[in-house]
Amino acid sequence: MIALVQRVSQASVTVAGRETGRIGHGLLVLVCAEPTDTEEHARKLVDKLLKLRVFSDDAGKMNRSVTDVAGGLLVVSQFTLAADTSGGNRPSFTGAAPAPLGRRLYEWVLQLARERHAPVASGEFGADMRVALVNDGPVTIPMRIL
């Protein structure tokens, strides 16, 4: 699985003018499943997200996790993270999982995250979404779970 994690002071996602998710401080996580990904990859991603130390401690060092700071998670599906631009100017997205698998793994990530953390907000799989965020730091971390 591929994820792009951004530490935010706030973030929201809307679909057709309707807000589907909003958090205050926490992590905005853009997620893309790849064709060989499994539920185990999703579990490892959630484990990593909840333990990722990207929030400052009292000394100003990134030593705290989203769990430690009681931050939110906003999880948004984004197949374009699998873009391959090596063949020209038009990206290929063949590296993304087929939609049924992508949806299943995205929903599995959400389920696991909600079982272990609150609050967890989300986008809508396959929808044309508008994501608004205030990147805090800025801190943006690409991740690939193998």
Itemize the secondary structure elements and their pairings.
Blueprint: E1 2-15, E2 18-23, E3 26-32, H1 39-51, E4 55-56, E5 62-64, E6 72-77, H2 99-116, E7 120-122, E8 129-144
Parallel strand pairs: 3-6, 6-7
Antiparallel strand pairs: 1-2, 1-3, 1-8, 4-5
Helix pairs in contact: 1-2
Would you kindly provide a written description of the structure presented here, covering whatever features stand out?
There is one protein chain. Helix 1 crosses helix 2. Strands 1, 2, 3, 6, 7 and 8 form a six-stranded mixed β-sheet that branches. This protein has helices spanning 39-51, 99-116, and strands at residues 2-15, 18-23, 26-32, 55-56, 62-64, 72-77, 120-122, 129-144. The relative contact order is 0.31. The chain has a single domain (2-144), classed as D-tyrosyl-tRNA(Tyr) deacylase (D-tyrosyl-trna(Tyr) Deacylase, Chain: A), CATH 3.50.80.10. A hairpin with a 2-residue loop joins strand 1 and strand 2 (18-23). It has 146 residues and is of the alpha/beta class.
